[in-house]
């Protein structure tokens, strides 16, 4: 809703009608921001109020590339994290390659299925991790040198990030450079 409203405000500015809608747009923006803040606070309290969730969030946040949004999404959308294999975690996130045995893509592999909202958040986390996580940065650099497409690189980094997150949650240990 916030993104849609901001796009609407920009459209008003381009059309020269911003002054006509400024009061309503400003009021809506404040209301939406207030509701978003309230929801974020509720989520933070829910995680802090549960020892297991709090520990999982702490483990996830220790991984360079996983911030508050990605850690919260992993906890909410993949409650199985830490109790499944890395391959299962990648599949649940929709980051595991799926072979196409028929049709025009015969013999090709692509990602499919999984939890779409979580996958999109993990793509964003992968963009950050590819620059700020030493082991994932070197992994991404190797793929770049092999002339892989950007989308392929980010997908591979996202999959590796989910696999690392799952393994660390399974062992209940925080990220260290040696863990990678």
Automatic annotation (TrEMBL):
<protein>
    <submittedName>
        <fullName>Transposase</fullName>
    </submittedName>
</protein>
<feature type="domain" description="Transposase IS116/IS110/IS902 C-terminal">
    <location>
        <begin position="58"/>
        <end position="139"/>
    </location>
</feature>
<dbReference type="InterPro" id="IPR047650">
    <property type="entry name" value="Transpos_IS110"/>
</dbReference>
<dbReference type="InterPro" id="IPR003346">
    <property type="entry name" value="Transposase_20"/>
</dbReference>
<dbReference type="Pfam" id="PF02371">
    <property type="entry name" value="Transposase_20"/>
</dbReference>
